[in-house]
Amino acid sequence: MSHANEVKPMYPGIYPPPKAEHNADELGLPTAPLNTLLGFDMETYQVPLEQLLPSKTVPEGIITTRKYKQIVSSIHEIGLIEPLSIIQPNPDKPEFLILDGNLRALALKELDILEAPCLLAKDDETYTYNHRINRLSTIQEHYMIRRAIDKGVSKDRLARAFNVNLNSISRRISLLDGISPKAVELLQDKKFTPDVTRILRNMKSARQVEAVELMVASNNITATHAEALLKATKDEQRTDRAQAKQEQKRAPLEQIVKLEKEMSQVQTQYKEAEQNYGTDLLNLVVAKGYLTKILANDAVKAFIHKYEPEILSHFELVVNTVSMEEAVQNEYVGKGQHQGHDKAARPEENQEES
């Protein structure tokens, strides 16, 4: 197969070109073809799997992951939806390099399929496939399943294609039942579990919107977060009044008010930490590099050890830190040890207190 990079004339969005009796100026259409460089051949080729070479090493244990099992189940049930993207590095050799679809090729081999539909690319690059991609959100997945059900696809077949049980399919079908349209709009492009909307159904529409806004702002759309917001919701903003009364016996009104205030404080602290994280991390990296050079000098290290051993221990703590989380943890541990040393240094005070 000969596949040279050719510039082919194409009309964007119109085919065939406008007829002679039509005035192109009135239609607002281009009067001449645009030179567009095609990234792929217009045809799809059936290529034997033995001629396909992977472009990267498949991680160990990938065949045991849920993602890979779903790919295998989907191909087995409904076939390969998206063709593999390949390129022929050397036209004189029959081998092709896989640009996108290494896991799909592995799944086809597991299913004993000998050939795969492929799109032949003209540029040897893989960045677009791996980074310029829109992942399917949970709500989009819900719409896709509902559309398949409307077209006559059975729940059993969907469960086999997704490699999940029937209960999971039923929950995804009823994902948005009882959810406010405004809340649905906020969750449109987010990934979350069906448990989140199950908990949101216990809130009224206005409270659903408030809860979703809080979860989106903190980038934490989880069932645990939704459950905490539900517990902080007032009775008049809940739809499960009977359940709310039972919970009130276990959690007094004062505790609920306190929890609501704490949640507000957590949101404020989270936003402040998010704004300062980049600067703090940069300062940590610069300080770590500077202190590493200082402690590499034996004379300087010996001097600090002799006159300021406590400062030296803090310097070594910074040098050995590998992440911001570890730095925060070490700070808390250091404070605890410091308080312990202070109490040990004052045994008389401890005896008097006892």
Question: What tags apply to this protein structure?
Answer:
354 residues; alpha/beta; Conserved hypothetical protein from pyrococcus furiosus pfu- 392566-001, ParB domain; five-stranded mixed sheet; two-stranded antiparallel sheet; 17 helices; flat; disordered C terminus
State the strand order across the main sheet: 3-7-5-6-4
Beta strand %? 5-15%
Unreliable spans are 1-15, 337-354
Radius of gyration: 31 Å
The secondary structure category is alpha/beta
Global shape:
flat
Major pleated sheet = 5 strands, mixed
Gap between N and C termini, in Å? 91 Å
CATH structural fold name of the domain at 39-131: Conserved hypothetical protein from pyrococcus furiosus pfu- 392566-001, ParB domain
Number of helices: 17
- Class of the domain at 39-131, according to the CATH hierarchy? Alpha Beta
Q: Going by CATH, what is the homologous superfamily of the domain at 39-131?
A: Conserved hypothetical protein from pyrococcus furiosus pfu- 392566-001, ParB domain
Task: Describe the secondary structure blueprint for this structure.
Elements: E1 7-10, H1 24-27, E2 34-37, E3 40-48, E4 52-53, H2 66-78, E5 84-87, E6 96-100, H3 102-110, E7 115-121, H4 127-131, H5 138-150, H6 155-162, H7 166-173, H8 181-186, H9 194-200, H10 205-217, H11 223-231, H12 241-250, H13 253-295, H14 298-307, H15 309-319, H16 324-345, H17 347-353
Helix pairs in contact: 2-3, 2-6, 6-7, 9-11, 13-15, 14-15
Structure description:
The chain has helices spanning 24-27, 66-78, 102-110, 127-131, 138-150, 155-162, 166-173, 181-186, 194-200, 205-217, 223-231, 241-250, 253-295, 298-307, 309-319, 324-345, 347-353; strands at residues 7-10, 34-37, 40-48, 52-53, 84-87, 96-100, 115-121. Among the domains are: 39-131, Alpha-Beta Complex (Conserved hypothetical protein from pyrococcus furiosus pfu- 392566-001, ParB domain), CATH 3.90.1530; 134-175; 281-344, no CATH class. Helix 2 (66-78) crosses helix 6, helix 6 (155-162) packs across helix 7 and helix 14 (298-307) crosses helix 15 (309-319). It has 354 residues and is α/β, with parallel strands linked by helices. It is built from 17 helices and 7 strands.
